[in-house]
Structure prediction request, 283 residues.
Amino acid sequence: MSIDHAPETATAAASGANATARFATDKSAAAAATPPERVSLLAREVLAAVHKAVHDHKVTYDEYNALKSWLINVGQDGEWPLFLDVWVEHAVEEVAGETRDGSKGTIEGPYYVPAAPELGHDAVLPMRDGEHGTPLLFQGQVTDVAGQPLLGAVLEIWHADDDGFYSQFAPGIPEWNLRGTVTADENGHFQIRTMQPAPYQIPTDGACGKLISAAGWHPWRPAHLHLKVAAPGYQQITTQLYFPGDKYNDNDVADAVKPELILDPHDVDGGREVTYDFVLDKV
Ligand code: DHB
Ligand code: FE
Prediction:
């Protein structure tokens, strides 16, 4: 059976607008409670850093107007979630993770969708007939920091396909493709069958892509699995796992790779297998 592949129709405007709509639905309410002293402090310091760059580098009116026009385009292309999650989120996550002893986390990125289908502890992620790529068996155990299994821990997993596209953000992919909610068994074990994702290119046809090409950077993230791992009474972790030998592991546009997050898969008949365990801190 042939697959309705997305690449020719995926655009920055489409995935940007979808990411903006998704953020408005799921997350924007959390932003309301910041106290005024904190807003004032942070706004002042960020603006002071901008003023310093203007003075230090003698920014011209042409450059200022180029910035203004670019910022307007980031909004028009719906790319604020993409911009922030690529160039800012990693610092926020580093601060958030400073006080945890368990598994490392990293950025969530713009493509998480809650309430993916529940697949039990021995899961096959939803995929198209003939889904491209290398079959991957991803398995492990969820424990507390003392090594006690966390029975019933819940893992949400989502990742790009073998062309680097995410369901619900790139067009032409079934709604829950390569997304699922997995519940660990009574020993904290889980196993997930999926297809290894490809490196991901942040959309190059929108404002973020313009910044990348104007600056002479590259738009790539290494191939990665996204996960959220939770258990009652424990801190949820949001993380990503990477594959050894990926040429973007040392050079991720989103700066989100940590050595602890690189998997150690081995080849088996018909694909690859990898074990990775998660350790959660108490609330
Ligand atoms: C972006 C995309 C990702 O898949 C990711 O993990 C992080 C950031 C982005 O396009 O902003
Ligand atoms: Fe991603």
